[in-house]
Amino acid sequence: DAGVIQSPRHEVTEMGQEVTLRCKPISGHDYLFWYRQTMMRGLELLIYFNNNVPIDDSGMPEDRFSAKMPNASFSTLKIQPSEPRDSAVYFCASSFRGEKLFFGSGTQLSVL
Amino acid sequence: AQSVAQPEDQVNVAEGNPLTVKCTYSVSGNPYLFWYVQYPNRGLQFLLKYITGDNLVKGSYGFEAEFNKSQTSFHLKKPSALVSDSALYFCAVRDTNAGKSTFGDGTTLTVKP
Q1: CA distance B68 to B75
Q2: Does the N-terminal peptide bond of residue B7 adopt cis geometry, omega within 30 degrees of 0?
Q3: Contact, B23 vs B8, CB < 8 A?
Q4: Cβ contact (<8 Å) for A101 and B36?
């Protein structure tokens, strides 16, 4: 298995633009998590899905952030409009039955 | 509610010496406990977990962790540190009734030659 695949690896955009981050979880995993990592705030859970259904989105910063999981093999995290304070590394992770997490390599987002 | 505390932002040890990275937790039910490691510009990687059973858990790269229920701790240990162990280490806890894990703030381990 190729592991959790995230794209793009790096994203540089200007303030106000829409940003879409993509994730392909490991086949057979029933949980998918989106995390954000910054020096100031550490590792933050934004949202997680179980069997493609959003379970807890309490970590989503505000309405500018949205996430979808249309099927078991794909999820997106969208920021519209983006702001400089959204600059961070965004990780997707998947797991089976919510146990150990398998993380992707992350998307380094820079909003200028 | 569940929470994790990693009291040390930084741990420095000399190569060949034993290392300990501390973690304490709080959960309302029975805990699932995890350690992850993050190398620069990489995602977190699973090291080991405690679900039930033996309090001493062995994991990848020679690491082990000891579950102590009375002290609500799950410290990560290694008998002899390597320079290549230098990385950021995260402890995580999940209540058996919860779907998500809560991560600590991370501890930067530096092993000097």
Answers
A1: 9
A2: no
A3: no
A4: yes
Query: How many whole angstroms separate alpha carbon A11 and alpha carbon B36?
Result: 26
All residues of chain B having their beta carbon less than 8 Å from the beta carbon of residue A4 are 43
Task: Give me the total of CB pairs closer than 8 Å, taking one residue from chain A and one from chain B.
Answer: 53
Beta strands in chain B (DSSP E): 3-5, 10-14, 19-21, 24-26, 31-38, 44-50, 56-58, 64-68, 73-78, 87-95, 102-103, 107-112
- Confirm if B30 and B20 have CB atoms less than 8 A apart: no
- pLDDT, one tens digit per residue, over B42-60 is 899 999 999 888 899 999 9
Whether residue A71 has pLDDT greater than 70: yes
Cβ-Cβ contacts under 8 Å for A41 (sequence gap 6 or more): none
Look at residues B41, B25, B46 and name the one whose alpha carbon lies nearest to residue B98: B25
Residue B64 to residues B33, B67, B77: CA-CA distances in angstroms? Answer: 12, 10, 5
Residues of A in contact with B34 (CB under 8 A): 100-101
Chain A positions touching B92 (Cβ under 8 A) are 101
Tell me how far CA of residue B31 lies from CA of A16, A79, B72, in angstroms: 42, 34, 10
> Residue A103 forms beta bridges with which residues?
A93
Nearest CA distance, A71 vs chain B (angstrom)? 19
Structure tokens at A61: 């910063």
The percent of residues in chain B predicted with pLDDT above 70, rounded, is 100
| A102:B46 CB<8 A | yes
Closest to B90 (Cα-Cα) out of A42, A36, A57: A42
